[in-house]
Design brief:
With about 375 residues, the protein is of the alpha/beta class. It contains 13 helices and nine strands. β3, α6 and β4 form a beta-alpha-beta unit.
Length: about 375
């Protein structure tokens, strides 16, 4: 009986940290709203500075969950020294396998002190995510949507242009594959492979044929504002079948937090913006070549040292995220949550913020976006 309870408790060890992450939403939105009111009549740069600091505070809580709590190990291959240099505005591209990928950008941005600058190009449906859908638009994230299978870019282009116009610091994160790549999604793989063959290009097995339009509009509007493209290739440990050597799906959020000492392998490369083609055909082939390189790296990861969980070619360095950089955020949000939920007035304020804030945010996004 006791053993059964312990097993179930261990299997559910993901519930508390993820509940804290989502449960802190009303607190974060309330603090952000107060800051927005205070800075409303001040220059835009003051709001941006304040918002970026608040965003960094929350994302350090995310890092507490995905690194400190999960005890994940992060191994970086390539020129990690570029991440420890001065802050810079960049476009950040990487392969996309699972819902943990977005948190990896935090891990890479932290050494440079740029975690508050992260903005995402997001699928349009996420604008209705309770509380955060509205907030992401206020943090200058970009929502994109498709119509009849074609990319509708007019509003996205306008929104990206505002980043340069308002001189907003940015790490613009986008996933050129457009959807998650998983060996279990045969329909997606076959459809993308057929498209690749139609383009006269060699089909890819470990990544999907990247779509160029999102990167194209981002580069068009941000040249002169960003100095480099950061190209990241992500692979996760325990995604190689030790019996067959075949690739397994990457862990989702709950699996990642539940597993003991998962490893994340990151191949990082900094590409100066002047080396990135500006014309669409040149950029399309450049982006395809980047994903060919990812294909090569991932093929090595999944075929070599399978019993050890795989690795990229070359030497790696551990990316250490000290608890001192994530624990204060954890203590701040847990303390605020404990105070709110400890009395009736706080609980009323909490659930009303969840309910009415979510409704108001969705209505705003429906009208304005």
């Amino acid at each position: 009986m006791i053993l059964s309870v312990l097993v179930h408790t261990h299997n559910l060890r993901w519930t508390l940290p993820l509940a804290l992450s989502l449960g802190s939403s009303p607190i974060y939105i309330s603090v952000w709203a107060a800051a927005r009111i205070v800075t409303f009549c001040l220059p835009r740069s003051v709001y941006t500075y304040t918002d970026d600091r608040l965003y960094a505070l929350y994302q350090r809580l995310v890092l507490f969950i995905f690194n400190t709590y999960s005890t994940s190990k992060v191994k970086v291959y390539g020129n990690i020294s570029a991440l420890r240099g001065k802050k810079e505005n960049v476009i950040f591209i990487c392969n996309h396998q699972c819902t943990v990928d977005w948190a990896v950008a935090n891990m890479i941005a932290l050494p440079q002190g740029s975690i508050g600058r992260i903005r995402y190009i997001l699928k349009d449906g996420l604008k209705y995510f309770p509380l955060y859908g509205f907030y992401f638009s206020q943090h200058s994230c970009i929502f994109v949507k498709t119509k009849d299978g074609k990319f509708n870019e007019m509003k996205a282009r306008t929104d990206v242009a505002k980043l340069k116009k308002n001189n907003i610091p940015v790490w613009m994160v986008l996933f050129p594959e457009g959807t998650r790549m998983s060996p279990a999604r045969n329909d997606v793989l076959e459809k993308r492979r057929s498209y690749t063959a139609m383009q006269g290009l060699e089909p890819l097995s470990h990544v999907l044929m990247p779509k160029v339009r999102g990167l194209q509009l981002t580069l068009d509007e941000l040249r002169g504002h960003v100095s480099a493209v950061y190209d990241l290739t992500i692979a996760y440990s325990n995604t190689v079948d030790p019996q067959t050597g075949s690739r397994l799906p990457a862990p989702d959020i709950t699996e990642f937090v539940s597993k003991s000492s998962p490893e994340i392998h990151l191949q990082f490369e900094r590409i100066p913006i002047k080396e990135v083609p500006s014309d669409e055909n040149g950029l399309k082939m450049w982006l395809y070549s980047r994903f060919q390189e990812k294909e090569r790296l991932l093929a090595h990861f999944y075929s070599s040292n399978a019993s050890m969980g795989g690795r990229f070619p070359g030497e790696s360095q551990d990316l250490n995220i000290p608890a001192s950089s994530t624990l204060p955020s954890f203590l701040f949000f847990t303390s605020c949550l404990a105070v709110l939920l400890s009395n009736k007035t706080g609980r009323d304020l909490y659930w009303k913020t969840w309910l009415f804030g979510s409704i108001a945010g969705c209505l705003w996004m429906a009208v304005r976006h």
